[in-house]
Amino acid sequence: MKRILVDMDGVLADVYTRYFELHREVTGQQMTVNDIAGLLEAEAFPLQLEWAATPGFFRSIPLMPGSLNGLKRLNETYDVIIVSLATEFPNSLIDKQLWLHDHFSFIKWQQIVFCGNKNIIKADVMIDDHPKNLDHFNGDTILFNQPHNMLLTTPRHRRVSSWEEIEKLLIP
Amino acid sequence: MKRILVDMDGVLADVYTRYFELHREVTGQQMTVNDIAGLLEAEAFPLQLEWAATPGFFRSIPLMPGSLNGLKRLNETYDVIIVSLATEFPNSLIDKQLWLHDHFSFIKWQQIVFCGNKNIIKADVMIDDHPKNLDHFNGDTILFNQPHNMLLTTPRHRRVSSWEEIEKLLIP
Predict the structure, then answer these.
(1) Cβ-nearest to B87 among A3, A90, A109
(2) Closest to B120 (Cβ–Cβ): which among A116, A117, A121?
(3) Domain assignment present for A131
(4) What mean pLDDT comes out for the span B85-90?
(5) B90 and A110: CB-CB below 8 Å?
(6) How many domains does chain B have?
(7) Nearest CA to CA, how far is B32 from chain A (Å)?
(8) With contact defined as beta carbons under 8 Å apart, do B15 and B7 qualify?
């Protein structure tokens, strides 16, 4: 059974919807994707690092549309491992695990990895929204479209914009 | 640079000293290593699973003697990754990361992995007290002596009883 690494923020977790919401609460302004195209999260939202370090933040993120059904189907076909660069924000660890339990209760604790470097994990496929994680991965790479990566040319990675596209690519 | 995976509980963290202490507080009885030789932690200490699920428990564990100096020296010679099966106990995640920061501040967040299965990590050497983690590892394996493993015959793994022995084995 092939092993597939699935990222959380920007793939399973719709972080931008939450960023836009918090930005509106703080500034009264409604941003759009085009306002922040090509900017990293911390460049687009000056308070992003503060939000990420706040207990409860990561548990409040909405689900990426289609991810519940998509991950369920992947989980029937692949050895699914959920991998998140969470050790940068220690407060995020329990929130992320509880968030996974809230939304994807079929994912067992044995399938979760919180780490600081994804390149040390052995797998066949990686789905991520950050090219820096995909670039050093030896297997098949799938780049999930997000504002921070939308201006980059990344011919090595297959780019998808939805979980429906992931299912079409990966499920026979 | 060779990558080495270093376990926390039973290798960096002297969990048995804390178990003996808690057992004495609860029952008034002083156990010895010989009382529990060959028993898994949860068999030796009926309250172990409860303790492990309690916030703060993992931050209260004393350091394994010699581990501070030993890990510092390994960190100068190897790509050290601290790996702990922590996702079984979500409350342990932040405690474990803060414990590492309390005692081994030279370990960066990029060097920490909390997971549910160590076999998915690529590395050259693994130090662990649980043969089940070492048995499926392809590289060099070092078994740290602990009461639960002391009656097992594990010829494939080099057995050590102290951090001084680890240094002798691994540092030129």
Answers:
(1) A109
(2) A121
(3) yes
(4) 92
(5) no
(6) 1
(7) 32
(8) no
- Tell me, what's the ipTM? 0.93
User: DSSP labels for A6-40?
Assistant: EESBTTTB-HHHHHHHHHHHHHS----GGGGTT--
Catalytic residue, candidates B7, B14, B128, B129? B7
Beta strand pairing call for A140-144 and A158-160 = parallel
Check residue B163 and give its pLDDT. Answer: 98
Residue numbers in A near B137 (CB within 8 A): none
For residue A120, the one-letter residue type is I
In the prediction, which pLDDT does A172 show? 86
Range of the domain at A139: 3-14+59-170
Q: Chain A residue with minimal CA distance to B119?
A: A122
| Residue B49 within any structural domain of the chain | no
**Amino acid B172: pLDDT:** 86
B19 contacts B57 by C-beta, under 8 angstroms: no
Q: Considering the domain boundaries, does residue A44 fall inside one? A: no
Query: Closest residue of A to B117, CA-based?
Result: A110
Residue B160 lies in a domain: yes
* A7 in active site: yes
A116-168: pLDDT as tens digits: 999 999 999 999 999 999 999 999 999 999 999 999 999 999 999 999 999 99
CATH code of the domain covering residue B94? 3.40.50.1000
- Cα B96 → chain centroid: 11
